[in-house]
Design goal:
- This protein is an alpha+beta fold and 428 residues long.
- It folds into four domains: 159 residues, MoaB/Mog-like domain (Molybdenum Cofactor Biosythetic Enzyme, Chain A), CATH 3.40.980.10; 68 residues, Molybdopterin biosynthesis moea protein, domain 2, CATH 3.90.105; 95 residues, Molybdopterin biosynthesis moea protein, domain 3 (Molybdopterin biosynthesis moeA protein, domain 3, Beta Complex); 70 residues, Beta-clip, CATH 2.40.340.
- It contains eight helices and 28 strands.
- The strands form eight sheets. A six-stranded mixed beta sheet has the order 7-4-6-5-9-8, with no helix packed on it.
- Helix 1 crosses helix 7 and helix 4 runs parallel beside helix 7.
- The chain is elongated, with a radius of gyration of 31 Å.
- It starts with a helix and ends with a strand.
Length: 428
């Protein structure tokens, strides 16, 4: 059996041949557009380096409410010999740039431009009196009892990013702070990768739509909902079309109708060694390979480029296929360990893997030594790992109550309470 890492590399290579990395689209960063069309903005990957069109901050501005001063004017200030300065006209955020006269203190508000001639800001609380005078007061003085260093509480122009610098690099997965800094430099749009289009086919004669009346032996389809959510959270567009049949011809007919409009086909179920495994029966002859991966849950897997015959005399279509096992936990664990990083790599994301952390387990348990076991669990407040449910692949409720997947590597047959193991956070 191949390892998880070996299988993941195969899937990454498979999707590398169809990735839309050369295809990009312009995305407005208008807050109005974001609010009107939120689906356009989640999980977008930057297509090219973004160069800052302006500096941040764009000008020297005050970090505090206080007085803009020339630090040299307070060089001799001390508690028993305060430095008294004449109060100049006030500057607020949004005011035009001003000029500071030596020997004065300019009242300044947070974010206001530091006037030319001043090189420091003293907090209002450090002034005497520790409050601003009314705007119409004249002939006022304010005293200071300590020296100040040049640059105190001044946000220097370009101290965050300078015009012409690389603001964000290609492959950045855009989040709230990224959109904020893009808009903060004055950019109105960015170039992002086109989303991968995934056809999701959950299979099985027994699965039915939630809300329908079940007959004996039938079950509700959990995989379509679970994996649609997982794919959306990875930035894909999804077409979920279950195949409620164990007939290979029915599955092929579905793929013939739908495969031309997608980049990737993800199937669920029908990959084991049973008498009627619809995915294996339908796609094996078309170029998809099936194998066992040394992981628990999620051993049976399949992948390859399927040459799907065209309907009504049309040419065949080649599409990459990833085939997952049908038990819901097996499918979700397989997605986390194998499919998710491959999809992110396909659109050029720089970060494709979950952050690997390490914690102490609170209980003893066994693990198959020839498999990499992934157990569901929680991180307690003290940082220790608590397992949730058993290792069986049907315990979907246990998965729903978990925040981590705990790794038990190949070669480990038993774990004792107090042992350290790696884990992935899966709740973000």
């Amino acid at each position: 059996m191949r390892t998880i890492e070996e299988h993941r590399r195969e899937i990454i290579a498979l999707l590398g041949g169809v990735a839309p990395t050369a295809e990009a689209e312009e995305l407005s960063v208008s807050a109005t557009e974001m609010a009107a069309h939120p689906e356009r903005y989640a999980h977008r990957v930057l297509a090219a380096d973004l160069i800052a069109p302006s500096s941040l901050p764009a000008f020297d501005n005050s970090q505090m409410d206080g007085y803009a001063v020339l630090s040299g004017d307070l060089a001799s200030a001390r508690a028993d010999a305060p430095a008294a300065l004449a109060v100049a006209p006030r500057i607020a955020a949004g005011d035009a740039f001003g000029t500071h006269a030596p020997g004065t203190a300019t009242p300044i508000m947070t974010g206001a431009p530091v006037p030319e001639g001043a090189d420091a800001v003293v907090q209002i609380e450090k002034a005497d009196p520790p409050a601003f005078f009314d705007d119409d007061d004249i002939d006022r003085t304010v005293s200071f009892t300590a020296t100040v260093p040049e640059g105190l509480f001044v946000r220097a122009a370009g101290s965050d990013v300078a015009r012409g610098d690389v603001l964000l690099t290609a492959g950045t997965l855009l989040g709230p702070a990224h959109y904020g800094v893009i808009s903060g430099t004055g950019a109105t749009a960015v170039s992002v990768r086109r989303r991968l289009r995934v056809l999701l086919v959950s299979t099985g004669h027994e699965i039915r739509e939630p809300g329908s009346a079940l007959q004996p032996g039938q079950i509700f389809d959990a995989n379509s909902s679970a994996l649609t959510a997982a794919l959306l959270a990875t930035g894909c567009t999804v077409t979920p079309l279950p195949c409620r049949s164990d007939d290979a011809d029915d599955l092929l007919a579905l793929l013939q109708r739908e495969s031309t409009a997608v980049d990737v086909i993800l199937t669920v179920g029908g990959v084991s060694a049973g008498a009627r495994e619809v995915v294996r029966d339908a796609l094996g002859p078309l170029g998809v390979e099936f194998m066992k991966v040394a992981m628990q849950p999620g051993g049976p897997q399949g992948f390859g480029v399927a040459s799907i015959p065209g309907a009504e005399g049309r040419a065949s279509v080649d599409r990459p296929v990833i085939s997952l096992p049908g038990n819901p936990v097996s499918a979700l664990v397989s997605f986390e360990a194998i499919v998710r990083p491959a999809l992110l790599a396909a659109v050029g994301a720089r970060a494709t893997s979950r952050e690997l952390r390490r914690g102490v387990v609170t209980e003893a348990f066994d693990s198959p030594p020839n498999h990499h076991q992934l157990r569901r669990g929680l991180v307690r407040e003290d940082g220790t790992l608590e397992l949730v449910g058993g290792p069986s692949s049907h315990l979907l409720h246990s998965y729903a109550g978990s925040t981590v997947l705990v790794h038990v590597p190949i070669g480990v047959s038993s774990v004792s309470a107090g042992d350290e193991l790696d884990y992935w956070r899966i709740d973000g």
